[in-house]
From TrEMBL:
Membrane-spanning residues: none
Domain Plastocyanin-like: 43-152, 160-272, 361-467
Subcellular location(s) per record: Periplasm
InterPro entries in the cross-refs: Cu-oxidase-like_N (IPR011707), Cu-oxidase_2nd (IPR001117), Cu-oxidase_C (IPR011706), Cu-oxidase_fam (IPR045087), Cu_oxidase_CS (IPR033138), Cu_oxidase_Cu_BS (IPR002355), Cupredoxin (IPR008972)
Organism: Caenimonas sedimenti
A GO CC annotation given for this chain: periplasmic space
Annotated signal peptide: 1-25
Pfam families listed in its UniProt record: Cu-oxidase, Cu-oxidase_2, Cu-oxidase_3
Keyword annotations of the record: Metal-binding, Oxidoreductase, Signal
Lineage: Bacteria, Pseudomonadati, Pseudomonadota, Betaproteobacteria, Burkholderiales
Protein's name according to its UniProt entry: Multicopper oxidase family protein
Length: 467
């Protein structure tokens, strides 16, 4: 296992075009271009570049930064030999802008282009990625970050983004072509052997004593869950999945972030000049390693900041009516060592052995998905609140992601959550029960799936219709 973290390599970053001066629907229009194209990335700085798929020649793709209330227009050009789409993960966009092939749009054919346009009502940390053959296209590098700044700047010394990922690199220095293999699909997913931060293995990170950092963590991995511990530091969680939360220290001293999730930390550099402090990934007990080291510069410390840390301003997500909410039970089933013996595949009862021959091993309420376009599992009334009582009846972790909406995490195993956090991707442990609630205010057919992408491909995906 290689030590540490990821970022980009190549040149040719795409910069935002000059914003239009006219106002549209009281929003500032910001225009961007993204070009899906092959390239090379120096994932391990001491080794040869690796062929990858990119947005604009870099992995991650260019960071798009706008301000809360802006309107975005993003023109995507496909220069790959394979079709693609772009999904705006965590943003409450109109259904036609959601980037799900065949469900919300036609795939962007090789040589084609597609224009996405939408308002951004919520500030926070978001990301964009392909949703076409996503277990392959994301693993080859098709993702980037989207930062929606608060209307009033947050007082920090540096605002940084760490995109966490892992890669399965062969001894020949190429991405392994073992996409979609049965073992990954039916177990924990595609776990890589090289971990990166912002596209490359990173040994150290320079900080100045006394500075305050806003550190935005984004998990772009297919399957790896990170559990980061910052030795010698006490970071505060200030936002989860882009949504503000009461500032608090992470439970157990680890920042756990599953595929698809984001977490904003406020971190005061409390060390002294010349000190070194390791950042550990402790999520997998038998796979612990050092992600990187904080290296304190020899400069004189910055003066301490007075006053208590204030919470970020709330976003515009509507509060669910828990008293009058409709309730639905959702059960996630399957995988190796599970109890699922058969499920409905193509509308027919299918045993696990036959499912595996079809490249499937997972089900939602006894139904196995076989593509993005499928009959909705639930039909929800627009404007009404709903509780989803979710149960993980498998032996594996699942980060469950709902498109087009943000939900409150109310309970875990029957106990109220401490912070009642807003999320769009919630991690469920084996045999865990989680209850969430949201207002179904965004009409359309919305994907609801595990964000371990091999699990999604293997059947753990469904559609919720808001009408």
């Amino acid at each position: 296992m290689h030590r540490r973290a990821l970022l980009s390599s190549l040149a040719l970053p795409l910069l935002p075009l000059q914003a239009c001066t006219s106002l549209r629907a009281a929003s500032r229009l910001r225009e961007f271009e993204l070009v899906a194209i092959t390239g090379d990335a120096r994932i391990e700085p001491t080794k040869d570049p690796v062929p990858v798929w990119t947005y604009g020649g870099t992995v991650p793709g260019p960071q798009l930064r706008v301000r809360q209330g802006d309107r975005m227009r993003v023109t995507v050009f496909n220069r790959l030999a394979q079709a693609t789409t772009v999904h705006w993960h965590g943003l409450r966009v109109p259904n036609a802008m959601d980037g799900v092939p065949h469900l919300t749009q036609h795939p962007i054919a090789p040589g084609g282009r597609h224009v996405y346009e939408f308002d951004v009502p919520d500030s926070g940390t978001y990301w964009y990625h392909s949703h076409f053959q996503s277990s392959e296209q994301l693993d080859r590098g098709l993702y980037g970050t989207l930062i929606v700044e608060e209307r009033e700047p947050v007082p920090v010394d540096r605002d940084l983004t760490w995109v966490l990922d892992d890669w399965r690199i062969t001894p020949a220095g190429r991405i392994s072509e073992t996409f979609g293999n049965a073992h990954d699909m039916a177990h924990a997913g595609r776990i890589g052997n090289v971990v990166t931060v912002n596209g490359s293995v990173r040994e150290d990170f320079s900080v100045r004593a006394g500075e305050r950092l806003r550190l935005r963590l984004v998990n772009a991995a297919n399957a790896r869950i990170f559990g980061l511990a910052f030795h010698g530091h006490r970071p505060l969680v200030i936002a989860i999945d882009g949504q503000p939360v009461e500032p608090h220290e992470p439970e157990g001293g680890r920042v756990v972030i599953a595929p698809g999730m984001r977490c904003d930390l406020l971190l005061d550099a409390a060390g002294r000049p010349g000190e070194r402090h390791e950042v550990h990934d402790l999520f997998y007990p038998r796979g612990r390693y050092v992600l990187m080291e904080f290296i304190y510069e020899q400069n004189a410390p910055l003066p301490a900041r007075p006053g208590a840390i204030m919470a970020l301003p709330a976003n515009t997500v509507p509060e669910p009516d828990l008293v009058n909410a409709g309730t639905h039970d959702i059960v996630f089933q399957g995988g190796m060592m599970g109890t699922l013996h058969q499920a409905l595949l193509d509308g027919k009862p299918t045993d696990m052995r036959a499912m595996l021959r079809r490249g499937k091993a997972w089900a939602v309420n006894g139904m196995v998905s076989d593509g993005h376009e499928m009959k909705p599992m639930l039909e929800l009334e627009r404007g009404r609140s709903y509780r989803l009582r979710m149960r993980n009846e498998t032996r594996w972790h699942h980060p469950i992601h709902l498109h087009g909406h943000t939900f409150r995490v109310l309970e875990r195993n029957g106990k109220p959550t401490r912070h009642q956090e807003w999320q769009d991707t919630v991690l469920m442990s084996p045999d865990e029960q989680v209850e969430v609630a949201f207002v179904a205010d965004n009409p359309g057919d919305w994907m609801f799936h595990c964000h371990i992408l091999e699990h999604q491909d293997g059947g753990m995906m469904t559609v919720l219709r808001v009408r």
